[in-house]
Amino acid sequence: MALPPGFLDELRTRTSLAQVAGRKVMWDMRKSNQAKGDWWAPCPFHQEKSASFHVDDKKGFYYCFGCHAKGDIFSFVRETENVEFMEAVEILARDAGMQIPARDPRAQERVDRGKQLVEVMEAALRHYRMQLGTGAAAGAREYLERRGLDRKALDRFEIGFAPDVRQGAFQALTGQGIEPKLIIEAGICAVPDGGGTPYDRFRGRIMFPIRDARGRCIAFGGRAMDPNAKAKYYNSPETPLFDKSRSVYNLGPAREAAGKGAPLILAEGYMDVIALSEAGFGGAVAPLGTAVTPDQLQMLWRVAPEPVVCLDGDAAGLRAAYRVIDLAMPLLEAGRSLRFALMPEGKDPDDLIRAEGAQAMQKVLDGAMPMVDLLWRQETEGKSFDSPERRAALDKALADRTGLIRDPGLRRHYDDALKDLKWQLFRRKPKAQGQGQRREWQPGRKGATFIAPSMPTTRNSRLVKAGAGAEDHLREAVILAALISTPEVFGEFESQLERLECRDTLHGTILHTLLAYGHDGAETIRSEISRIVGEAALESLLSDPHVALTPPVRRPGDAEAARLCLAEELAKLQSSRGLAAEIAEAEDEMLGQADEAVTWRLSQATRARHSVGQGFGEDKAEYDTGENGARINRAEREALDSLLEAIRFSKSRK
């Protein structure tokens, strides 16, 4: 029994032959061209070493130049899985998430009906094309001429005209012996709600035929000539042939152009597609009067791995782009994404090409941004992130968005790209010299030149001159130097580094650079740090005597030495700063209540605190294990105990 009409076409649309065949063969990537859907591999049907098995993923066919095996996606599954046709269909449908309809004995009848409807549509197209040459279409011809369409363009896109008469198409088609019920079922005419004689759906409109991937005319789009018409553009209704959510305009010619290397461009309307095609951008398609649908995206990805969504640059165009992003996020896969080209505000592709030529349009397409950049713009544009709460809200919003990506590898790359953009947005930069510690948030771009404002070197910025905090400053330097010398361990400490707050401007800049480029290798890390802070500052950091003597700097690439050093220094830094915070809190609590006894106890705690870390780099003090598992110097523990005793004593005297 036959399957329902259109089911196999839908299954082909949702399934990639290259993906299915890729489970059975090892692609020769030197010979294959993924962007063009051109794949080569040793044949799965006979023993060979050369790559003579060819898959044309755009057309959905394979051929072996050795054993001459050929077929489509169904025959491939049948031959490789040794199953019958219906079993192959069931396997592919299951992979595509499609439910196979119950077999219907009347399915063949519907197939035959579909063929009849296609014949009706072709007859209607001939009628509309003839009408474009009549006197009634003079205004339409003038409009098309003003839009730059010559006779060849009109013929290429089969543009026609529907006169503003109630039964022009109905009488023309019935006059050819076509049954009225077929004309109505094809969507050419409709019956009034109260009954009566059928009337033409399209009247006083320029007509654009819509063909499916197989080249069959399945619907029409009509542009009104009356400026006061209720709808400027009007499409055929849903019919057995036409589902607008699963169709795009100009798919067949665009697929052929994309196969020859042209970019696949998703424009907004019929005239945009025609203008782009006439200007040399043959891979242009358009949705049919509705927002882009998941099925349409899957169709586009079968043609090209990275279609360019070309939308107006105004607020409405951006909203449309954001809707496409929301739709696409759960559908993304490795090698399947979108790029976005935003037109100059107030211009569509047709306007730009007629005003400035194809070169201006090419420039817009060359500037198409990756989807991750527009996602970032969607979540940040017009918003302020001047508080930790707002920045945390941004983190959550971005995590929620990337959490929709099913491919874990792709999701990680999105998270990495957004982390880099966050670093650039939150990077601190002094407003001007002489303004002390004031900072402003400066957005940036990876790869852009950053001019550091009078960066101090490690040696002249050491806090030794100020006394307290010197050991923390040197621990920061050791941590950064260890990561620069042995970046292989960066991933193990990344989460701790994201929470690390460097007190020194230079250290903070180097840390942010590490967070941005930590996975890119030692050469890239050193190059970027040198570019941002200067070669002299980097060398000063690494040559500081206290830093240069540490094992990971003496032995670059020794992962174990770097791992042990980083774990210890991060733990010490955390412990030291936690203790400092508790002392500050205690001082606040006791403010105004100190007597000689409290002052003496606090001075004992403070002296013990300042004794910590005096032997930096050669620390031979004994350690205890704190509650969080970090190693804590016993001197620090004694200082903390003395401090807590001082606090208790103070509270007992209240």
UniProtKB/TrEMBL annotation:
<keyword id="KW-0862">Zinc</keyword>
<feature type="zinc finger region" description="CHC2-type">
    <location>
        <begin position="43"/>
        <end position="67"/>
    </location>
</feature>
<feature type="domain" description="Toprim">
    <location>
        <begin position="262"/>
        <end position="344"/>
    </location>
</feature>
<dbReference type="GO" id="GO:0003899">
    <property type="term" value="F:DNA-directed RNA polymerase activity"/>
</dbReference>
<dbReference type="InterPro" id="IPR013264">
    <property type="entry name" value="DNAG_N"/>
</dbReference>
<dbReference type="Pfam" id="PF01807">
    <property type="entry name" value="Zn_ribbon_DnaG"/>
</dbReference>
<dbReference type="InterPro" id="IPR034151">
    <property type="entry name" value="TOPRIM_DnaG_bac"/>
</dbReference>
<dbReference type="GO" id="GO:0005737">
    <property type="term" value="C:cytoplasm"/>
</dbReference>
<keyword id="KW-0238">DNA-binding</keyword>
<dbReference type="GO" id="GO:1990077">
    <property type="term" value="C:primosome complex"/>
</dbReference>
<dbReference type="InterPro" id="IPR050219">
    <property type="entry name" value="DnaG_primase"/>
</dbReference>
<keyword id="KW-0808">Transferase</keyword>
<keyword id="KW-0479">Metal-binding</keyword>
<comment type="similarity">
    <text>Belongs to the DnaG primase family.</text>
</comment>
<dbReference type="GO" id="GO:0008270">
    <property type="term" value="F:zinc ion binding"/>
</dbReference>
<dbReference type="InterPro" id="IPR036977">
    <property type="entry name" value="DNA_primase_Znf_CHC2"/>
</dbReference>
<dbReference type="GO" id="GO:0000428">
    <property type="term" value="C:DNA-directed RNA polymerase complex"/>
</dbReference>
<keyword id="KW-0460">Magnesium</keyword>
<dbReference type="InterPro" id="IPR037068">
    <property type="entry name" value="DNA_primase_core_N_sf"/>
</dbReference>
<keyword id="KW-0235">DNA replication</keyword>
<protein>
    <recommendedName>
        <fullName>DNA primase</fullName>
        <ecNumber>2.7.7.101</ecNumber>
    </recommendedName>
</protein>
<dbReference type="Pfam" id="PF08275">
    <property type="entry name" value="DNAG_N"/>
</dbReference>
<dbReference type="InterPro" id="IPR002694">
    <property type="entry name" value="Znf_CHC2"/>
</dbReference>
<dbReference type="GO" id="GO:0003677">
    <property type="term" value="F:DNA binding"/>
</dbReference>
<comment type="function">
    <text>RNA polymerase that catalyzes the synthesis of short RNA molecules used as primers for DNA polymerase during DNA replication.</text>
</comment>
<comment type="subunit">
    <text>Monomer. Interacts with DnaB.</text>
</comment>
<dbReference type="GO" id="GO:0006269">
    <property type="term" value="P:DNA replication, synthesis of primer"/>
</dbReference>
<dbReference type="InterPro" id="IPR030846">
    <property type="entry name" value="DnaG_bac"/>
</dbReference>
<feature type="region of interest" description="Disordered">
    <location>
        <begin position="432"/>
        <end position="454"/>
    </location>
</feature>
<dbReference type="Pfam" id="PF13662">
    <property type="entry name" value="Toprim_4"/>
</dbReference>
<keyword id="KW-0548">Nucleotidyltransferase</keyword>
<keyword id="KW-0804">Transcription</keyword>
<keyword id="KW-0240">DNA-directed RNA polymerase</keyword>
<dbReference type="InterPro" id="IPR006171">
    <property type="entry name" value="TOPRIM_dom"/>
</dbReference>
<keyword id="KW-0639">Primosome</keyword>
<dbReference type="InterPro" id="IPR006295">
    <property type="entry name" value="DNA_primase_DnaG"/>
</dbReference>
<keyword id="KW-0863">Zinc-finger</keyword>
